[in-house]
Amino acid sequence: MEVVYLGTFAHILWTDWILKDKLTTGFYRLLAIKPSHEIAATFRGNHNDRSINNTDVGRPNRRIQMRKLIATLVALSIGSASAMADEITLRGATAFAKGTTFSRPFEAFVDWVNENGKGVIQINYIGGPEAVPTFELGNAVSSGVVDIANNTTAFYTNLLPEGDALHLATNTIQEQRGNGCYELIDQLHQKKVNVKYLARTGDNIHFHLYLTKPIDSPDLSGLTIRTTPVYRAMFEKLGANLVRTAPGEVYTALERGAIDGYGWPIQGVLDLGWDEQTKYRVDPGFYQVDVNFLVNLDKWNSLTDEQRAVLEAGAKEIEAHNADNIGINESEDAKQREAGIKVITLNDADAATWLKTGQDAGWDAIAALDADMADKLKACLIR
Ligand code: 173
Questions:
Q1: How far is the CA of 326 from the centre of ligand 1 (A)?
Q2: pLDDT tens for residues 316-373?
Q3: Residues 103 and 130 both lie in one domain
Q4: Ligand 1: does its nearest atom lie under 6 Å from the Cβ of 229?
Protein backbone atom coordinates (compact mmCIF):
# COMPACT_ATOMS: atom_id res chain seq x y z
CA MET A 1 0.00 0.00 0.00
CA GLU A 2 2.81 2.41 0.91
CA VAL A 3 4.25 2.26 -2.59
CA VAL A 4 0.85 3.03 -4.09
CA TYR A 5 0.48 6.05 -1.84
CA LEU A 6 3.99 7.17 -2.70
CA GLY A 7 3.22 6.84 -6.41
CA THR A 8 0.00 8.80 -6.03
CA PHE A 9 1.76 11.44 -3.94
CA ALA A 10 4.45 11.82 -6.62
CA HIS A 11 1.77 12.23 -9.24
CA ILE A 12 -0.08 14.92 -7.28
CA LEU A 13 3.16 16.84 -6.63
CA TRP A 14 4.12 16.63 -10.25
CA THR A 15 0.72 17.84 -11.51
CA ASP A 16 0.67 20.56 -8.88
CA TRP A 17 4.13 21.83 -9.83
CA ILE A 18 3.45 21.80 -13.58
CA LEU A 19 0.28 23.83 -13.12
CA LYS A 20 1.89 26.35 -10.78
CA ASP A 21 4.96 26.67 -12.97
CA LYS A 22 2.89 27.24 -16.06
CA LEU A 23 0.64 29.74 -14.42
CA THR A 24 3.37 31.82 -12.73
CA THR A 25 6.77 31.87 -14.37
CA GLY A 26 6.65 29.30 -17.11
CA PHE A 27 4.86 28.87 -20.31
CA TYR A 28 2.38 31.75 -20.10
CA ARG A 29 4.94 34.36 -18.99
CA LEU A 30 7.25 33.16 -21.72
CA LEU A 31 4.51 33.66 -24.27
CA ALA A 32 3.96 37.18 -23.01
CA ILE A 33 7.54 38.39 -23.15
CA LYS A 34 9.40 36.51 -25.88
CA PRO A 35 9.34 36.52 -29.62
CA SER A 36 8.23 33.26 -31.18
CA HIS A 37 11.72 32.13 -32.42
CA GLU A 38 13.03 32.41 -28.86
CA ILE A 39 10.12 30.42 -27.57
CA ALA A 40 10.92 27.73 -30.13
CA ALA A 41 14.58 27.77 -29.06
CA THR A 42 13.53 27.35 -25.44
CA PHE A 43 11.49 24.31 -26.35
CA ARG A 44 14.41 22.87 -28.32
CA GLY A 45 16.35 23.08 -25.09
CA ASN A 46 18.48 26.16 -25.76
CA HIS A 47 19.96 26.71 -22.35
CA ASN A 48 21.30 30.19 -23.06
CA ASP A 49 17.88 31.39 -23.96
CA ARG A 50 16.45 29.80 -20.92
CA SER A 51 18.98 31.43 -18.58
CA ILE A 52 18.31 34.80 -20.19
CA ASN A 53 14.67 34.25 -19.54
CA ASN A 54 15.20 33.42 -15.90
CA THR A 55 15.46 36.83 -14.39
CA ASP A 56 14.89 35.50 -10.88
CA VAL A 57 18.40 34.34 -9.89
CA GLY A 58 17.21 31.95 -7.21
CA ARG A 59 14.82 30.19 -9.49
CA PRO A 60 17.07 27.89 -11.60
CA ASN A 61 18.42 26.15 -8.46
CA ARG A 62 14.96 25.69 -7.05
CA ARG A 63 13.78 24.39 -10.36
CA ILE A 64 16.67 21.91 -10.63
CA GLN A 65 16.02 20.72 -7.09
CA MET A 66 12.36 20.38 -7.85
CA ARG A 67 13.14 18.42 -11.00
CA LYS A 68 15.41 16.09 -9.06
CA LEU A 69 12.69 15.56 -6.49
CA ILE A 70 10.15 14.90 -9.18
CA ALA A 71 12.49 12.55 -11.05
CA THR A 72 12.99 10.59 -7.82
CA LEU A 73 9.29 10.46 -7.04
CA VAL A 74 8.36 9.52 -10.58
CA ALA A 75 11.01 6.80 -10.55
CA LEU A 76 9.59 5.54 -7.26
CA SER A 77 6.14 5.70 -8.72
CA ILE A 78 7.23 3.71 -11.80
CA GLY A 79 9.07 1.31 -9.49
CA SER A 80 5.94 0.83 -7.45
CA ALA A 81 3.89 0.23 -10.59
CA SER A 82 6.28 -2.51 -11.69
CA ALA A 83 6.32 -4.00 -8.18
CA MET A 84 2.54 -4.22 -8.37
CA ALA A 85 2.75 -5.65 -11.87
CA ASP A 86 5.12 -8.33 -10.56
CA GLU A 87 2.53 -9.69 -8.14
CA ILE A 88 1.45 -13.01 -9.55
CA THR A 89 -1.81 -14.85 -8.95
CA LEU A 90 -1.87 -18.65 -9.05
CA ARG A 91 -5.02 -20.63 -9.81
CA GLY A 92 -5.51 -23.19 -7.05
CA ALA A 93 -7.85 -26.20 -6.79
CA THR A 94 -8.45 -29.08 -4.41
CA ALA A 95 -9.29 -32.73 -5.08
CA PHE A 96 -11.58 -32.85 -2.04
CA ALA A 97 -14.90 -31.06 -1.49
CA LYS A 98 -14.37 -27.41 -0.61
CA GLY A 99 -14.49 -26.70 3.12
CA THR A 100 -14.14 -30.37 4.15
CA THR A 101 -11.41 -32.01 6.26
CA PHE A 102 -8.77 -32.66 3.61
CA SER A 103 -9.23 -29.31 1.88
CA ARG A 104 -8.91 -27.31 5.10
CA PRO A 105 -5.10 -27.26 5.42
CA PHE A 106 -4.89 -26.07 1.80
CA GLU A 107 -7.51 -23.42 2.47
CA ALA A 108 -5.48 -22.27 5.47
CA PHE A 109 -2.42 -22.15 3.18
CA VAL A 110 -4.31 -20.05 0.59
CA ASP A 111 -5.31 -17.61 3.36
CA TRP A 112 -1.74 -17.51 4.66
CA VAL A 113 -0.28 -16.76 1.21
CA ASN A 114 -2.93 -14.15 0.41
CA GLU A 115 -2.18 -12.44 3.73
CA ASN A 116 1.62 -12.71 3.73
CA GLY A 117 2.21 -12.52 -0.02
CA LYS A 118 0.52 -9.19 -0.73
CA GLY A 119 2.29 -7.46 -3.64
CA VAL A 120 4.30 -10.67 -4.29
CA ILE A 121 2.09 -13.69 -4.83
CA GLN A 122 -1.58 -14.53 -4.36
CA ILE A 123 -3.74 -17.62 -4.87
CA ASN A 124 -7.11 -17.57 -6.54
CA TYR A 125 -8.85 -20.62 -5.08
CA ILE A 126 -11.21 -21.88 -7.76
CA GLY A 127 -12.61 -24.77 -5.71
CA GLY A 128 -12.94 -28.54 -5.55
CA PRO A 129 -14.20 -31.38 -7.75
CA GLU A 130 -16.97 -29.15 -9.11
CA ALA A 131 -14.18 -27.10 -10.75
CA VAL A 132 -11.83 -29.98 -11.66
CA PRO A 133 -12.95 -33.64 -11.20
CA THR A 134 -11.00 -35.47 -8.49
CA PHE A 135 -9.10 -37.89 -10.72
CA GLU A 136 -8.40 -35.15 -13.29
CA LEU A 137 -6.65 -32.76 -10.94
CA GLY A 138 -3.25 -34.45 -11.37
CA ASN A 139 -3.41 -33.91 -15.14
CA ALA A 140 -4.68 -30.36 -14.65
CA VAL A 141 -1.74 -29.27 -12.47
CA SER A 142 0.73 -31.22 -14.58
CA SER A 143 -0.37 -29.42 -17.75
CA GLY A 144 -0.81 -26.02 -16.10
CA VAL A 145 -4.62 -25.82 -16.35
CA VAL A 146 -4.29 -25.04 -12.64
CA ASP A 147 -1.08 -23.72 -11.08
CA ILE A 148 -1.36 -25.26 -7.63
CA ALA A 149 -3.30 -28.30 -6.44
CA ASN A 150 -4.21 -29.94 -3.16
CA ASN A 151 -4.13 -33.62 -4.03
CA THR A 152 -3.35 -37.06 -2.67
CA THR A 153 -1.02 -39.45 -4.53
CA ALA A 154 -3.86 -42.00 -4.76
CA PHE A 155 -5.66 -39.61 -7.13
CA TYR A 156 -2.72 -39.23 -9.54
CA THR A 157 -1.29 -42.76 -9.77
CA ASN A 158 -1.81 -42.46 -13.55
CA LEU A 159 1.16 -40.05 -13.48
CA LEU A 160 3.14 -41.34 -10.51
CA PRO A 161 2.35 -44.99 -9.64
CA GLU A 162 5.20 -45.03 -7.08
CA GLY A 163 3.37 -42.24 -5.26
CA ASP A 164 1.46 -45.00 -3.46
CA ALA A 165 4.55 -45.34 -1.27
CA LEU A 166 3.81 -42.01 0.40
CA HIS A 167 0.93 -43.34 2.49
CA LEU A 168 3.09 -46.24 3.66
CA ALA A 169 5.23 -43.72 5.56
CA THR A 170 5.54 -44.07 9.31
CA ASN A 171 7.56 -40.88 9.85
CA THR A 172 6.64 -37.22 9.41
CA ILE A 173 7.26 -34.70 6.64
CA GLN A 174 9.63 -32.88 9.00
CA GLU A 175 11.68 -36.08 9.29
CA GLN A 176 11.46 -36.59 5.54
CA ARG A 177 12.77 -33.07 4.96
CA GLY A 178 15.61 -33.88 7.34
CA ASN A 179 16.62 -37.25 5.87
CA GLY A 180 16.58 -36.42 2.16
CA CYS A 181 13.27 -38.18 1.42
CA TYR A 182 11.59 -34.89 0.59
CA GLU A 183 14.16 -34.23 -2.19
CA LEU A 184 13.73 -37.75 -3.56
CA ILE A 185 9.93 -37.40 -3.65
CA ASP A 186 10.21 -33.89 -5.08
CA GLN A 187 12.49 -35.17 -7.87
CA LEU A 188 10.01 -37.96 -8.68
CA HIS A 189 7.21 -35.40 -8.88
CA GLN A 190 9.24 -33.01 -11.02
CA LYS A 191 10.31 -35.72 -13.44
CA LYS A 192 7.08 -37.66 -13.76
CA VAL A 193 4.30 -35.22 -12.93
CA ASN A 194 5.87 -31.90 -13.97
CA VAL A 195 5.09 -30.42 -10.57
CA LYS A 196 7.01 -29.09 -7.60
CA TYR A 197 6.17 -31.14 -4.50
CA LEU A 198 5.65 -28.24 -2.14
CA ALA A 199 4.11 -29.63 1.03
CA ARG A 200 2.63 -32.68 2.71
CA THR A 201 -0.33 -32.57 5.05
CA GLY A 202 -2.12 -35.50 6.69
CA ASP A 203 0.67 -36.82 8.93
CA ASN A 204 -0.59 -38.71 12.01
CA ILE A 205 -3.90 -39.59 10.33
CA HIS A 206 -4.50 -43.29 9.71
CA PHE A 207 -6.91 -44.94 7.28
CA HIS A 208 -9.68 -47.33 8.34
CA LEU A 209 -12.17 -49.71 6.82
CA TYR A 210 -15.82 -48.66 7.38
CA LEU A 211 -18.62 -51.20 6.88
CA THR A 212 -22.36 -51.68 6.68
CA LYS A 213 -21.95 -55.33 7.80
CA PRO A 214 -19.81 -56.64 10.69
CA ILE A 215 -16.67 -58.73 10.32
CA ASP A 216 -14.84 -60.67 13.04
CA SER A 217 -11.49 -61.27 11.34
CA PRO A 218 -9.31 -59.68 8.65
CA ASP A 219 -11.03 -61.86 6.04
CA LEU A 220 -12.81 -59.55 3.60
CA SER A 221 -13.94 -62.18 1.11
CA GLY A 222 -17.48 -61.69 -0.11
CA LEU A 223 -17.45 -57.96 0.62
CA THR A 224 -17.54 -55.27 -2.04
CA ILE A 225 -15.47 -52.36 -0.85
CA ARG A 226 -15.04 -48.90 -2.28
CA THR A 227 -11.34 -48.17 -2.67
CA THR A 228 -8.75 -45.89 -4.15
CA PRO A 229 -5.19 -47.05 -4.84
CA VAL A 230 -4.46 -46.44 -1.13
CA TYR A 231 -6.29 -49.57 -0.04
CA ARG A 232 -6.23 -51.66 -3.20
CA ALA A 233 -3.23 -53.94 -2.57
CA MET A 234 -4.20 -54.57 1.07
CA PHE A 235 -7.93 -55.17 0.62
CA GLU A 236 -7.32 -57.33 -2.45
CA LYS A 237 -4.93 -59.51 -0.44
CA LEU A 238 -7.61 -59.84 2.22
CA GLY A 239 -10.10 -61.10 -0.35
CA ALA A 240 -12.41 -58.13 -1.03
CA ASN A 241 -14.06 -57.19 -4.32
CA LEU A 242 -12.98 -53.67 -5.14
CA VAL A 243 -14.77 -50.71 -6.68
CA ARG A 244 -12.78 -47.53 -7.22
CA THR A 245 -14.70 -44.28 -6.79
CA ALA A 246 -13.97 -40.65 -6.06
CA PRO A 247 -15.07 -39.55 -2.57
CA GLY A 248 -17.99 -37.71 -4.14
CA GLU A 249 -19.64 -41.01 -5.13
CA VAL A 250 -19.37 -42.85 -1.82
CA TYR A 251 -22.61 -41.65 -0.22
CA THR A 252 -24.77 -42.71 -3.16
CA ALA A 253 -22.96 -46.05 -3.50
CA LEU A 254 -23.69 -46.77 0.19
CA GLU A 255 -27.28 -45.58 -0.08
CA ARG A 256 -27.91 -47.88 -3.04
CA GLY A 257 -26.22 -50.84 -1.36
CA ALA A 258 -23.69 -51.04 -4.23
CA ILE A 259 -20.88 -51.36 -1.68
CA ASP A 260 -20.58 -52.99 1.74
CA GLY A 261 -18.01 -50.52 2.95
CA TYR A 262 -15.26 -48.14 2.09
CA GLY A 263 -11.76 -47.11 2.99
CA TRP A 264 -11.36 -43.64 4.48
CA PRO A 265 -9.22 -41.92 7.11
CA ILE A 266 -10.28 -41.45 10.75
CA GLN A 267 -11.14 -37.81 9.98
CA GLY A 268 -13.88 -36.47 7.77
CA VAL A 269 -16.62 -39.15 7.85
CA LEU A 270 -19.14 -36.87 9.56
CA ASP A 271 -18.10 -33.91 7.44
CA LEU A 272 -19.32 -35.82 4.40
CA GLY A 273 -22.48 -37.15 6.07
CA TRP A 274 -21.36 -40.77 5.55
CA ASP A 275 -22.09 -41.61 9.18
CA GLU A 276 -25.75 -41.88 8.16
CA GLN A 277 -24.88 -44.89 6.00
CA THR A 278 -22.07 -46.40 8.10
CA LYS A 279 -22.52 -49.03 10.82
CA TYR A 280 -18.97 -50.14 11.68
CA ARG A 281 -15.39 -48.96 11.72
CA VAL A 282 -12.58 -51.51 11.84
CA ASP A 283 -9.62 -50.79 14.12
CA PRO A 284 -6.67 -50.54 14.07
CA GLY A 285 -6.10 -47.87 11.50
CA PHE A 286 -3.31 -48.38 8.99
CA TYR A 287 -1.01 -46.31 6.74
CA GLN A 288 -0.82 -42.52 6.93
CA VAL A 289 -2.64 -39.87 4.92
CA ASP A 290 -0.69 -37.83 2.38
CA VAL A 291 -2.40 -34.78 0.97
CA ASN A 292 0.10 -32.74 -0.97
CA PHE A 293 0.40 -29.24 -2.39
CA LEU A 294 1.68 -29.47 -5.96
CA VAL A 295 2.78 -26.52 -8.10
CA ASN A 296 2.98 -26.78 -11.89
CA LEU A 297 6.73 -26.98 -12.58
CA ASP A 298 6.80 -24.47 -15.44
CA LYS A 299 4.98 -21.99 -13.25
CA TRP A 300 7.28 -22.75 -10.32
CA ASN A 301 10.36 -22.18 -12.48
CA SER A 302 8.96 -18.87 -13.70
CA LEU A 303 8.54 -17.51 -10.15
CA THR A 304 11.02 -15.14 -8.54
CA ASP A 305 12.97 -16.25 -5.46
CA GLU A 306 10.76 -13.97 -3.39
CA GLN A 307 7.56 -15.58 -4.71
CA ARG A 308 8.89 -19.09 -4.11
CA ALA A 309 9.99 -18.10 -0.62
CA VAL A 310 6.42 -17.06 0.26
CA LEU A 311 5.05 -20.43 -0.92
CA GLU A 312 7.75 -22.38 0.92
CA ALA A 313 7.26 -20.45 4.14
CA GLY A 314 3.50 -21.02 3.92
CA ALA A 315 4.07 -24.73 3.25
CA LYS A 316 6.25 -25.14 6.34
CA GLU A 317 3.76 -23.19 8.42
CA ILE A 318 0.92 -25.52 7.39
CA GLU A 319 3.05 -28.65 7.81
CA ALA A 320 3.75 -27.63 11.41
CA HIS A 321 0.01 -28.06 12.02
CA ASN A 322 0.17 -31.76 11.06
CA ALA A 323 0.89 -32.33 14.77
CA ASP A 324 -2.64 -31.07 15.57
CA ASN A 325 -4.04 -34.21 13.92
CA ILE A 326 -3.36 -36.33 16.99
CA GLY A 327 -5.92 -34.36 19.00
CA ILE A 328 -8.35 -34.06 16.08
CA ASN A 329 -8.28 -37.86 15.60
CA GLU A 330 -9.49 -38.32 19.17
CA SER A 331 -12.41 -35.96 18.77
CA GLU A 332 -13.36 -37.52 15.40
CA ASP A 333 -13.33 -40.99 17.00
CA ALA A 334 -15.65 -39.70 19.73
CA LYS A 335 -17.97 -38.07 17.20
CA GLN A 336 -18.20 -41.26 15.13
CA ARG A 337 -19.16 -43.26 18.22
CA GLU A 338 -21.75 -40.63 19.17
CA ALA A 339 -23.15 -40.86 15.64
CA GLY A 340 -23.72 -44.58 16.21
CA ILE A 341 -20.74 -46.06 14.37
CA LYS A 342 -19.65 -49.20 16.27
CA VAL A 343 -15.94 -49.93 16.48
CA ILE A 344 -14.80 -53.45 15.65
CA THR A 345 -11.38 -53.85 17.26
CA LEU A 346 -9.44 -56.79 15.86
CA ASN A 347 -7.72 -58.94 18.48
CA ASP A 348 -3.95 -58.66 18.75
CA ALA A 349 -3.12 -61.52 16.37
CA ASP A 350 -5.66 -60.35 13.77
CA ALA A 351 -4.52 -56.76 14.18
CA ALA A 352 -0.95 -57.86 13.48
CA THR A 353 -2.08 -59.72 10.34
CA TRP A 354 -4.13 -56.72 9.29
CA LEU A 355 -1.22 -54.29 9.63
CA LYS A 356 1.44 -56.61 8.21
CA THR A 357 -0.70 -57.48 5.21
CA GLY A 358 -1.18 -53.78 4.62
CA GLN A 359 2.54 -52.93 4.76
CA ASP A 360 3.71 -56.00 2.80
CA ALA A 361 1.09 -55.71 0.07
CA GLY A 362 1.72 -51.97 -0.19
CA TRP A 363 5.49 -52.29 -0.55
CA ASP A 364 5.23 -55.30 -2.86
CA ALA A 365 3.13 -53.17 -5.21
CA ILE A 366 5.81 -50.43 -5.23
CA ALA A 367 8.61 -52.97 -5.71
CA ALA A 368 6.75 -54.45 -8.68
CA LEU A 369 6.91 -51.01 -10.30
CA ASP A 370 10.54 -50.20 -9.44
CA ALA A 371 12.41 -52.35 -6.92
CA ASP A 372 15.28 -49.92 -6.56
CA MET A 373 13.01 -46.96 -5.93
CA ALA A 374 10.94 -49.03 -3.45
CA ASP A 375 14.11 -49.67 -1.43
CA LYS A 376 15.11 -46.00 -1.48
CA LEU A 377 11.67 -44.84 -0.41
CA LYS A 378 11.34 -47.48 2.28
CA ALA A 379 14.71 -46.46 3.73
CA CYS A 380 13.55 -42.90 4.28
CA LEU A 381 9.77 -43.26 4.89
CA ILE A 382 9.86 -45.91 7.60
CA ARG A 383 10.92 -44.93 11.09
O1 173 B 1 -10.20 -42.78 0.27
C2 173 B 1 -9.75 -41.93 -0.46
O3 173 B 1 -10.43 -41.30 -1.26
C4 173 B 1 -8.33 -41.61 -0.37
O5 173 B 1 -7.54 -42.23 -1.02
C6 173 B 1 -7.92 -40.53 0.54
C7 173 B 1 -6.59 -40.14 0.58
C8 173 B 1 -6.21 -39.12 1.42
C9 173 B 1 -7.13 -38.50 2.22
C10 173 B 1 -8.44 -38.88 2.18
C11 173 B 1 -8.85 -39.90 1.34
A1: 18
A2: 999 999 999 999 999 999 999 999 999 999 999 999 999 999 999 999 999 999 999 9
A3: yes
A4: no
